[in-house]
Amino acid sequence: MAKRVPLREGAFIETPEGGALVANRCKACGQVFFPKASICTACFNEDVEDLLLSRRGNLYSYTIGRMPSLHFEPPYALGYIDMPEKVRIFAPLEVEHGQYERLKIGMEMEVVVEKLWEEEGKEVIGWKFKPVIRGGKL
Amino acid sequence: MREVAVIGVGQSIFGKMPEKPIFELGQEAVRAALKDAAISPKEIQVAYLSRLYLGESAVNAQNVLADVGIRYIEMVNCENACAGGSTAFRGVWKDIASGLYDVGIAIGIESMTTSPIAHKMIPPGKDDLEGLLGLTMPAFFGLLAHRYIEQYGAKVEDFARVSVKNHHHGCLNPFSQYKKEFTVEEILNSRMISDPITLLQCCPNTDGAAAAILCSMDKVRTYTSAPIKVAASVLLSGNYKYLQDDMLFSDIGSKAAKMAYEMAGIGPEDIDVIELHDAFAPEEVFRYEEFGLCARGEGAQLLNSGATELGGKIPVNPSGGLLSLGHPLSASGVRQVAELTWQLRGQAGARQVPNAKVAFAHMLGGTVPSLDAGACGIEIFTR
Q1: Per-residue pLDDT of chain B (383 residues; tens, 9 = 90+)
Q2: Which of the residues B133, B148, B372 would you substitute to probe the A interface, choosing the one with the greatest number of A C-beta atoms within 10 Å?
Q3: Burial per residue of A40-53, b for 16 or more beta-carbon CB atoms within 10 angstroms, e otherwise
Q4: d(CA B57, CA B51)
C-alpha cells in the first residue's frame, strides 16, 4: 500500500466517525485561524491553542474549474465554507456524479478527509467538503 | 513634500511579440516618453523599472536605458506583481516629492509570451495550501462572481457586459491587442474557464512596455506649459482575509481609494475618467463599489446604466483595459499613467473622454494566502 502523507502536518485528525479539521485560536482575543497561525496576527499574542473545528459549515461560494490546476484535472468544484467557529475555509468540493447544479450558496457542507492526489508514489491526504444529504435529497 | 507633475509618457504596442526582445519594447516606450516631454536623456536623474518575470536577466533598468543614452544615475529595479508598474511610478514620485531629485522616469516592461507562465495559469507556491488545492486567479474571481450573483441578484450577463464595453473601447485604441467587438452572447459562449468566468472575461497574455517622466512642479515650466499634476499616489499591501466578512468589498481597494481621495482633496463624484484593473471582468463591477462610484451591490446597475462607457458620466477603461488592450503585468500600471495623461491633455483620439479634468488609476497585484491581495496602487491626476 502506498505511504500516506498529510497535505499539512497537524491540519486535520482522522477518527472512526470521520475526519475533522484542526484550527487554532488566540487565547487572548479569540481569533480563529485555519490553517493554523504561528502567533495571533490580530493582536500579536503568542499564546495560541489548537481548536477542533465542527465537521459542518455552510457554502459561502463555489466555482467549477474547467482548466487543469496543478493537481486536478477538470472539471473540479471548489468552494469557500463558513464554519461555525467564524473561520472561512477554501477547499475542493466533492459533488456526486459531477452534478454541479446541485451546489447552492448557503447549503450545508460536511468535511471529508481523504486522498487528494498521489505524488512520488505517496498518497497525499487532505480535506474536501461535500453537500450534506438529508433523506436522500439535498 | 513638493508637488510632482507628469511631463512625458510613452507606450509600445501591446500584443503577442515573442520574437521581439523585451528591452527593445522598453526602449520604444522610453524614447516615446522622452520625445513627448521634449527632454534630453541626460536630464533624467533617477529611474525605477518594474518587471515580474525576469528570465535570466537582471538590472533591467540599466539594460533598457543604456541604449537610450541614460546611464550613471540611480536606477532601481522592482516588482509588485500586477501592481509593479504603479510601484515604479510611486518610487519616482516619492524621490521627486521628497526633494531628492527633480526629474525621473518610471518604466514597466513584461514579456508574457516568453515568461515561464506563457499559455498557463500562474502556478501556486510550494507552501500555498489554497493554490495546491486548486485556487487559481480565475477560480478566485469565479467564486466572487457567484457570490455577487447570489448576494445582489446580478446576472452573468452583467459581467459579460464589462467585457463587451472594454472590447468596444479597445477597438478605438491603436495600441490595443484586440480590436474586435463582441456581443454578450459571444462572451458567454466562449470557453468556460472557471464558472461563471469564460475565456473572453479573462485578460490575455501580452507583451509590452510603458514609460512616464515625472518632474517637480517648481521646475516644470522648463519643459512644458501643460503639466499633468499627480494629485495623489497610494501604494497599500493587503489586509487579512479573516478580518473581512464580505469578500465582495475588499479592504485593500476601499482603503487605498479613500486615502487617495483624501490626499487629492476630492471625492468620487469629481472623477471624469478611470483606468482600473479588469484582469477578470467581474472585478470591474466590484471596484465601482470599492471606489464609491455607487453604493454596495449597485455596481451592475451602474454598468447597465451606461455611465461607465465612453459617452457616459464616468467612463471606465477607455483604453480597452486589461481585457482588450492587454496586460503585460508590470507594464500596465505605467501604461495607465500614459493613457490618463493623454486623456487629460485631450490627445486620446477616438477614445477621448470630452473635457476630462480629473483621472483615477488603479492596479491590483499578487496573491498571499492570508491576505485579500498583495498590493494596490492608486493615483489621481489633474490638469
Answers
A1: 999 999 999 999 999 999 999 999 999 999 999 999 999 999 999 999 999 999 888 999 999 999 999 999 999 999 999 999 999 999 999 999 999 999 999 999 999 999 988 877 777 877 889 999 999 999 999 999 999 999 999 999 999 999 999 999 999 999 999 999 999 999 999 999 999 999 999 999 999 999 999 999 999 999 999 999 999 999 999 999 999 999 999 999 999 999 999 999 999 999 999 999 999 999 999 999 999 999 999 999 999 999 999 999 999 999 999 999 999 999 999 999 999 999 999 999 999 999 999 999 999 999 888 999 999 999 999 99
A2: B133
A3: bebeeeeebeebeb
A4: 10
The CATH superfamily label for domain B129-202+232-382 reads: Thiolase/Chalcone synthase (3.40.47.10)
- Count of CB contacts below 8 A, A vs B? 88
Nearest to B33 by CA among B213, B230, B173, B175: B213
**Residue ranges per structural domain of chain A:** 3-131
Domain segments of chain B as ranges: 4-117+206-228, 129-202+232-382
* C-beta separation of B137 from B121 below 8 A: yes
The reply to whether domains B4-117+206-228 and B129-202+232-382 share a CATH topology is yes
Q: How far apart are CA A87 and CA A90, in angstroms?
A: 10
| Cα gap B81→B363, rounded to integer Å | 10
Cell digits of residue B367: 496573491
Contacts of B131 in chain A (CB under 8 A): 70
Q: Do B146 and A63 touch (CB under 8 A)?
A: yes
Q: B4-117+206-228: what CATH class?
A: alpha beta
Cβ pair A70:B241 closer than 8 A: no
Q: What is the pTM of this model?
A: 0.96
- Rounded to the nearest 5 percent, the helix, strand and coil shares of chain A are 5, 55, 45
Gap from A57 CA to chain B (nearest CA, Å): 15
- Which listed residue (B215, B327, B362, B376) is catalytic? B327
Contact A87/B194, CB-based, under 8 Å?
Answer: no
φ/ψ (deg, to 5) at B179: -115, 70
- What is the ipTM metric for this complex? 0.95
Interface residue ranges in chain B relative to chain A, Cβ cutoff 8 Å: 121, 123-124, 129-136, 138-139, 142-147, 150, 191-197, 240-243, 247, 370
CB contact under 8 A, A72 and B134: yes
